[in-house]
Amino acid sequence: FFFFFFFLRRKTGKSSQRGPPNFLIFSLTMLLQSLTKSSLRSDLISKNVKNYRKNSTKSSGFLKENNLNPRVLEAEYAVRGELVMRAEEHAKTLNKEKNLSTKKSLGFSEIVFCNIGNPQSLKQRPLTFMREYVSIMENPDILENSLVDKIYAKDVVERARRTLGKFPGMGAYSHSMGLPHVREAIAKFIERRDGFPSNPENIYLYNGASPAVQNVLRLIISGPQDGILIPIPQYPLYSASIKLLGGTQAGYFLNEEKSWGTEVVSLQRAVDECKKKGATPRAMVVINPGNPTGQVLSEENMREAIKFCHDNKMVLMADEVYQENVYIKEQRPFKSFKKVLGSMEAKYSDLELFSFHSISKGFLGECGQRGGYVELTNIDPKVAAQLYKLSSILLCPNTAGQLIMEAMVDPPKPGDASYELYVKERDGIYDSLKRRAQKLTKFLDGLEGVSCNAAEGAMYAFPQIRLPQKAVKEAERLGKRPDDFYAISLLDSTGVVVVPGSGFGQVEGTYHFRTTFLPPEDQIDNVMTKVADFHKSFMKKYQ
Q1: Which of 126, 183, 357, 452 could be 444's S-S partner, Cβ–Cβ 3.0 to 4.6 Å?
Q2: Handedness of CA 122, 207, 152, 432 (dihedral sign)
Q3: Euclidean distance between CA atoms 164 and 16, whole angstroms
Q4: Peptide bond into 140 cis (omega under 30)
Q5: CA-to-CA distance for 138 and 492, rounded, in angstroms?
Q6: Res. 7: pLDDT tops 50
Q7: Which alpha helices (H) appear in 410-481, and where do they start and end?
Q8: Phi and psi torsions of 326, nearest 5°
Q9: At CB < 8 A and 24+ separation, what contacts does 484-488 make?
Q10: Out of 111-115, 229-233, 458-462, least confident range
Q11: In this model, does residue 4 exceed pLDDT 50?
């Protein structure tokens, strides 16, 4: 700037009284001020960024861990807990070393997430029919393209055209209970499955089955005086939600020696425990097929559960999200609690029942699309109105999840253009899951000090591991539960992520872990080899 000003002075002459033109001096002065202000702003931004980074882990605010809701602090969700966070840190290390081409610091090259039933994260392909349908619904303008019938199957195009006439579009709020035509499709599906009537007005759609479970628990739990019976082992959604809502949990133990069956004596023990805590048993949760245990309940077990709920004036919450994952269909096909209830004596016909289903499991595995429902049976209309209010507070479930639910309960039929491919993909996924279930449970059952029941359904194996006393003592020295210690050691050695049994509940003095059998068939042998080598080394080290 000063060089330019000097140059102008030279050009206009030393004796000149006028100097540079005024507009040039003004323009250059404004430029200098602008540059100065920009520099100051840059310095201020830089200082603020440094302060943010400095204070990102040291807050001076009023919200601290010690003044949070204590129920939040006490709630645990092992499926995505400490072990998974450790695995994610390992994944970051692997990615960093890969990008920088640096020496590997871990003894493995990838993380295998067997901790959660998330099929598509482990390379299960989505069904073509579902994705084609939703893709047209997300971009309906493609229907105007003359090539649409060559891109999509004819029945997909026809379904999309029909659906577009039933609601404003994917980006619009739906009814809080869900799209009417989707609820109608679900009701027809239930009638075909069970042989009993179903009313669309008793069906509430949600972003997955989990929010549906949580809303039903909100209806029931008002404080510690309200007890909920849950199976042990159980899916930690239930224990965490009961804790968050301030209710009282009472666990009934499944019998591992009898394929994780339910026994009335265990149910009675849980009711007695609940009453000793000063709580009234209000509801009982049954997960069928089981998570994490993989059992499929016999009809006799289901009848006993219904009678017990009825006699003890409890609501029955039937978690049936794995109903398409039954691998012993010839011996014990899936039966819903609603179907069994409908076949029992008239005195049980008024049992209050909430039944849950989801698009996340089965052969779909559409976990990220978030779609689920609850059906109400024998629920007082005034109670249903309160559930409607809770649904309204959440506005509505997402529309993509609702449409995938519709396609799940009303799939292509024989003669439809999509039918053959749909059946091929569906059966291919189911048959592969069945083979992997059998292979993995047989492998685990053959390891030293390990016993594992067959996975009759769902997506998991839940083996019991008999840990050497030295390993138990080492875990205690480190301040860890023994099965946590085993699972962490497995992760750090192999990159395989499982969930310790303590996260689901187990008989005192026993240790388990839950693993999915979702790794692809061409990779599951490698996973089993890693686990076998680790287990052999671990047992030898602590003998």
Answers
A1: 452
A2: positive
A3: 80
A4: no
A5: 42
A6: no
A7: 419-445, 469-477
A8: -110, 120
A9: 484/82, 484/83, 486/511, 486/513, 486/538, 487/83, 487/513, 488/83, 488/86
A10: 111-115
A11: no
Helices (H) and strands (E) in the chain, counts: 19, 14
Residues 361, 359: Cα–Cα separation, whole Å: 6
DSSP character at residue 208? S
Phi/psi region, residue 495 (left: phi>0; alpha: psi -120 to 50; beta: rest), is: left
Q: Which of 436, 458, 116 is nearest to 287 (CA)?
A: 458
Strands 460-461 and 513-516: antiparallel
- Is residue 388 within 8 A of residue 176, CB to CB? The reply is yes
Confidence at residue 5, expressed as pLDDT on a 0 to 100 scale = 43
**CA 526-296-322 angle, 5° bins:** 70
Tokens 């187990």 sit at which residue?
506
CA atoms 101, 102, 104, 106: torsion sign? negative
**Structure-token pair, residue 329:** 């269909």
Terminal Cα distance for the chain, rounded: 80
Q: What percent of the chain has pLDDT over 70?
A: 88
Q: What are phi and psi of 69, to 5 degrees?
A: -55, 120
Q: Count of CB atoms within 10 A of residue 199's CB? A: 14
Q: Pull the structure tokens for residue 533.
A: 């080598």
C-alpha 475/C-alpha 292 separation (Å) is 24
